[in-house]
Amino acid sequence: xxxxxxxxxxxxxxxISAFSLVEVVLAMGIVSFALIIMFALLPIGLKSNNDSxxxxxxxxxxxxxxxxRRSSAYSNYSSSYNIPxxxxxxxxxxxxxxxxxxxxxxxxxxxxxxxxxxxxxxxxTNIYPGATNNPVTGPPQxxxxxxxxxxxAAQTNRPSSVETIATFMQP
Length: 171
Hints:
Layout: H1 21-71, E1 93-99, E2 115-122, H2 124-127, E3 142-151, E4 160-169
Antiparallel strand pairs: 1-2, 2-3, 3-4
């Protein structure tokens, strides 16, 4: 039997398979579509991460403000943030302070600060009718402070903020 010469056009072995050009182009289209979606979601994820970090730092600052007020004598201004004394509070008092990124520097200006802290001190009469904040002989009367930390401080309409109310009892 005569052997046919190899001219390079014979059929391949059916056990050997490969991708066609159409399959490769289709796979590249699917992968590129997935990559476009992933890159489109990247800025949203980064913004969400940034917002979450800012909120965590704001909550930490709130905890620091409350701890500073609790650690200071009731009749004195707080030691770190200079929050007013809580004795003889007969009417609502408000105040604002600006805090740098480190959470400690309080002599900052609005243009250079990271956080704006607004606080409102409410006397016991706003919480419990008939109560007073003058030195009492009966049970101690509470004073509440509403703290609001917002950022960035340089903006007039601050888009991000955290808020809490803390109650302080007279010693």
